[in-house]
Design goal:
There is one protein chain. With about 375 residues, the chain is α/β, with parallel strands linked by helices. It has two domains: about 220 residues, Aspartate Aminotransferase, domain 2; about 130 residues, Aspartate Aminotransferase, domain 1 (Alpha-Beta Complex), CATH 3.90.1150.10. The chain has ten helices and 16 strands. Strands 2-10-9-6-5-3-4 form a seven-stranded mixed beta sheet, with helices on both faces. It has a three-stranded antiparallel beta sheet with strand order 13-14-16. Helix 1 runs antiparallel to helix 7 and helix 2 packs parallel to helix 7. The longest helix is centred in the middle third of the chain and has 32 residues. The radius of gyration is 21 Å and the shape is globular. About 45% of the residues are buried. Bound molecules: ligand T4K. The site of ligand T4K has 24 residues, from helix 3 and helix 4.
Length: about 375
């Protein structure tokens, strides 16, 4: 292994010179933020690329989640998964909403629809599932439950850029879907995010909410926030979008190589893709099972000795953090599958510029540890 550290991800960066014309255009216009030309163009290009009707850009995915809940006036209790990045549940707490954790499906690692119904109470107003690792949730079962109980569905689609199921973009499901464009994501704007919404009226409300609630110079209709994406972030998004198909292809190649090389290593289970007709290869999660000679944490530490920094997404569970663990739904006995998966999961490095020989070295290291 060469000396350079290998992180779980690394952003794709086009040549710096390619970004300069965008900067010149911003300098010339003197419009730096508040829905300028770059912002408008990125919204339009993303709608087209993703195949969705309306998209509203944000300064990050977390503010987009907060705003999505505000836009639909969600209150009371929201059913969600403990197996996610902490921002999912934090967006509920920031809105004064009580998260109700439901266990995950052992195959998809997404919220288990069969366990949602028993968590519904008279206070439940919505479900917030996560398309974890960009693997689609069981959207049909979730929608059926939502329809039966008159609940809204807000998808945390932070990992699901460009993912499609057989009918088209995964982002068309539910009432709203929220994307993250953080530097560590498949498509990034340094920091950024977006809400995908089905109609112009909802988009209008979201636009007001992300601009302090202003409708015009003198009218404020809601206690909005500053969720606007700047021109520089939007410009970088436009440049990234030119490369997105190449980015996805390079990620797919890394994914295929791992799958090929890891097959047959006892005690390492690759999490299968399921339910999508186009995947985005955003993460490469494996489960370190009991028949592997090392625990997941031992392997995680050993990889560091060869300068490979895998990550334990998602460990600990959200429900184990101090602000959540007192909730009745956070009890370990309620979240047995999530608990077990979070003890075994390891996300191996995956990103467009990850070289074949580095993947080979990572896997041969894991293989040699498996044979101890
Ligand atoms: N919902 C879900 C399901 C999410 O996963 C996230 C974010 C959100 C909501 C919220 O969206 P945002 O508000 O973030 O838009 C990272 C990211 O910060 C976070 O965006 C992401 N999920 C989460 C899964 O991962 P960390 O603390 O693990 O990131 P960090 O800084 O340790 O980065 C990981 C590795 O990536 C580093 O070791 C090196 C590399 N890296 C990172 C950055 C920031 C780079 O090479 N360049 C960079 O600029 O949380």
């Amino acid at each position: 292994m060469d000396d350079k550290p290998v992180f779980v991800t690394q952003p794709f960066l086009p040549e710096l010179s390619e970004f300069l014309p965008y900067l010149e255009s911003i300098w010339e216009s003197k419009v730096l933020t508040n829905g300028g030309k770059m912002h408008q163009q990125l919204e339009a290009e993303l709608c087209e690329y993703l195949g969705v009707e309306h998209i509203s850009l944000f300064n990050n995915g977390t503010i987009a989640l907060l705003t999505a809940l505000q836009a639909l006036r969600i209150t009371g209790e929201v059913i969600t998964t403990p197996y996610s990045f902490v921002a999912t549940a934090h967006s509920l707490l920031w809105n004064g909403i009580k998260p109700v954790f439901v266990d995950i499906d052992p195959v998809t690692l997404n919220i288990d629809p069969a366990k949602i119904e028993s968590a519904i109470t008279p206070q439940t107003t919505a479900i917030m599932p996560v398309h974890c690792y960009g693997h689609p949730c069981d959207v049909e079962s979730i929608q059926k439950i939502a329809d039966n109980y008159n609940l809204k569905v807000i998808y945390d689609a932070a990992h699901a850029f460009a993912v499609k199921d057989i009918g088209g973009s995964i982002l068309r499901h539910g009432d709203l879907s929220v994307l993250s464009f953080h530097a560590t994501k498949v498509f990034n704007t340094f920091e950024g995010g977006a809400i995908v919404c089905p109609d112009a009226k909802t988009k209008q409300r979201i636009e007001h909410l992300k601009n302090f609630g202003f409708v015009d110079e003198v009218t404020v209709v809601a206690p909005g926030i500053n969720g606007k994406m700047s021109e520089i972030n939007a410009a970088f998004g436009l440049l990234q979008l030119k490369y997105i198909d190449k980015i996805l292809k390079l990620r797919e190649d890394v994914d295929s190589l791992y799958r090929h090389l890891l097959s047959g290593i006892k005690g390492v289970r690759v999490v299968e893709e399921s339910g999508q007709s186009q995947a985005n290869f955003s993460y490469f999660p494996v489960l370190i099972e009991k028949d592997f000679p090392l625990t997941r944490d031992e392997l995680y530490e050993k990889l560091k000795t060869i300068n490979v920094f895998a990550r334990r997404y998602f460990f600990p569970l959200i429900s184990e953090f101090p602000m959540y663990r007192g909730l009745p739904s956070a009890a370990k006995s309620n979240l047995m599958v999530a608990e077990s998966v979070s003890q075994r999961v390891l996300c191996l490095p995956i990103y467009p510029s990850l070289r074949t020989e580095v993947v080979e070295k990572i896997v041969s290291f894991i293989r040699s540890e498996s044979m101890r």
